[in-house]
Design goal:
The chain has 12 helices and 13 strands. It has about 375 residues and is of the alpha/beta class. It has 2 domains: about 10-40 and about 265-370, Aspartate Aminotransferase, domain 1 (Alpha-Beta Complex), CATH 3.90.1150.10; about 45-265, 3-Layer(aba) Sandwich (Aspartate Aminotransferase, domain 2), CATH 3.40.640. A 7-stranded mixed beta sheet has the order 2-8-7-6-5-3-4, sandwiched between helices. α1 (about 45-50) runs antiparallel to α9 (about 255-265) and α10 (about 265-290) runs parallel beside α12. The chain is globular, with a radius of gyration of 22 Å. The chain binds pyridoxal-5'-phosphate. Pyridoxal-5'-phosphate binds near residues 89 and 219. Pyridoxal-5'-phosphate (PLP) binds near residues 156, 160, 217, 225 and 230. This is Histidinol-phosphate aminotransferase. It catalyses: L-histidinol phosphate + 2-oxoglutarate = 3-(imidazol-4-yl)-2-oxopropyl phosphate + L-glutamate. Homodimer.
C-alpha cells in the first residue's frame, strides 16, 4: 500500500525544538531558554491587543500596511520595501521558498541559527555549512562555500546561539564579494540589543545592493513572541517575490496592532536595552569568574561552556539548574553539546543562576578533588 510521500528533503529535517519552559518538581520556574525579554511587552502593546478583542471576526488588512508604515516611520524606511510576516521565521521560510529549489544550495555558518537548515531543506535545497573560527562566522569561509548553485547566504548577526557578531565592515565585505545572483539574508533578530559602534543591522547594505535583505522581529526585545510578528526590508524585486507567495493574511490584526503600539513606546525599548546592558556584562563576568568559559555576546543571551569532566558537563549542569527551576537551553543540535545558552533574565533570575552555578561548580568539584587527593 502506498501513502502520500513528502519530498525527499522533508523527512531528513529534524524539527526545530523550542526552548523548554517547564522544570518538573521545581517550586518556581525561571525560563531562560528562549531569549525572551524579562521586561515583557510595552503596556501600550497590551492595551492595543485588548482593544482589538471586539474586532477579531474581521480579516486583517492583507498587506499589513499600517504596520509597514509604522516600521517605515520608526526606522526611516520606505514601507513599499517592507514585508511583514508571522514572525521572522515566516520570512526566512518565504525567502527559501522563493529562491531555493532542488539542486540549489544555501550557505550558512557552522553554529548558525538552525532555522536556515530547516527552511533550505523544506524548499528542496541543499544546506552548505561554512566553518567558524572561535564560534564566529567568517566571511572568507562563507565565500569559499559559494558556487554556481548557491541561491542564498544566511547570516544571523548577532548569531543565535553563540551571541557573537560580525562588524559592519566585514558584513559589507561579504555583501560586496558575493556574486550578484546570490541573495544575502541578514537576520538581525537581536539588532536592538547591540550597542557597539562597529555594528550595523543591514539597512545600509540593503540600500547599496540589489541582493541583500534584512529580517527583523517583534519577538525579542519588543516582547511579542507569542503574537508572531516579524518583517523584512529588501530591494523592491525581492519584496515583490515574497509578496507573491506569502499567505494572504500572514500577520494577524491583533499582532499588527500590538506591534504598532510597541514601536511607539521608546521608553520601554530603552529600558529593555538598559536592562540588558547592565546584566549581560554582569552575567558574563560572574560566570567567567567561576571558571567557566563564556562566549563574548552582544545579544541578550550568553553561551556557557562546561568542562568535559565527569560531574561538570553541560548535561550535569542542566540537570542541576533544572532542579532549581532554572531552565536554560541545551544547544547540542548546534554542535555545541558542551554549552548551555542562558538568556539574560530579570535580576532575581540572573542572581539565582550565578548562585546555582557557583554551587554546581563547588559540589561537582568536591568529590573529584577528594578522589584526586587534593584535600589530602
Ligand atoms: C528568535 C530568532 C528569530 C526570530 O524568530 P521569530 O519569532 O520567528 O521572529 C530569527 N532569527 C534568530 C537568529 C533568532 O534567534
Amino acid at each position: 500500500m502506498t501513502k502520500p510521500t513528502p519530498r525527499s528533503t522533508v523527512l531528513v529535517i529534524d524539527a526545530y525544538v523550542p526552548g523548554r519552559s517547564a522544570a518538573p518538581g521545581a517550586a518556581r520556574v525561571f525560563k531562560l531558554s528562549a531569549n525572551e525579554t524579562p521586561l515583557g511587552p510595552s503596556p501600550r502593546a497590551v492595551e492595543a491587543l485588548r482593544g482589538m478583542a471586539d474586532h477579531i471576526a474581521l480579516y486583517p488588512e492583507g498587506s499589513s500596511r499600517a504596520l509597514r508604515e509604522a516600521i517605515g516611520a520608526r526606522y526611516a524606511l520606505n514601507p513599499d520595501r517592507i514585508i511583514a510576516g508571522a514572525g521572522s521565521d515566516n520570512l526566512l521560510e518565504l525567502l527559501a521558498l522563493a529562491y531555493i529549489g532542488p539542486g540549489d544550495e544555501a550557505v550558512y555558518s557552522q553554529h548558525g541559527f538552525l532555522e536556515y537548515k530547516i527552511v533550505t531543506l523544506a524548499a528542496g535545497g541543499t544546506p552548505v555549512v561554512a566553518p567558524e573560527t572561535n564560534y564566529t562566522a567568517e566571511v572568507d569561509a562563507l565565500l569559499a562555500c559559494v558556487s554556481e548553485r548557491t541561491k542564498i547566504v544566511f547570516l544571523a548577526n548577532p548569531n543565535n546561539p553563540t551571541g557573537t557578531f560580525l562588524p559592519a565592515n566585514e558584513v559589507a565585505r561579504l555583501a560586496r564579494s558575493l556574486p550578484s545572483h546570490v541573495l544575502l539574508v541578514l537576520d538581525a533578530a537581536y539588532a536592538e540589543y547591540v550597542l557597539r559602534e562597529d555594528y550595523e543591522a543591514g539597512v545600509a547594505l540593503v540600500d547599496a545592493h540589489e541582493n541583500v535583505v534584512m529580517t527583523r522581529t517583534f519577538s525579542k526585545i519588543y516582547g511579542l513572541a507569542g503574537l508572531r510578528v516579524g518583517w523584512a526590508y529588501g530591494p523592491a524585486h525581492v519584496i515583490d517575490a515574497l509578496n507573491r507567495i506569502r499567505s494572504p493574511f500572514n500577520v494577524s490584526s491583533v499582532g499588527s496592532a500590538a506591534a504598532i503600539a510597541a514601536l511607539s513606546d521608546r521608553a520601554h525599548l530603552d529600558a529593555a536595552i538598559a536592562h540588558n546592558d547592565r546584566w549581560l556584562p554582569w552575567l558574563s563576568r560572574e560566570i567567567s569568574a567561576l571558571g567557566l568559559d563564556v562566549l563574548p555576546s552582544v545579544a541578550n543571551f550568553v553561551a556557557i561552556r562546561f568542562p568535559d569532566a565527569p560531574g561538570l558537563t553541560a548535561v550535569d549542569a542542566d540537570r542541576f539548574l533544572m532542579s532549581r527551576g532554572l531552565v536554560l537551553r541545551a544547544i547540542g543540535a548546534y554542535g555545541m553539546g558542551e554549552f548551555l545558552r542562558l538568556t539574560v533574565g530579570a535580576q532575581e533570575a540572573n542572581e539565582r543562576v550565578v548562585e546555582a552555578l557557583a554551587e554546581f561548580m563547588q559540589s561537582a568539584r568536591a568529590p573529584q578533588d577528594a578522589q584526586a587527593g587534593v584535600h589530602g
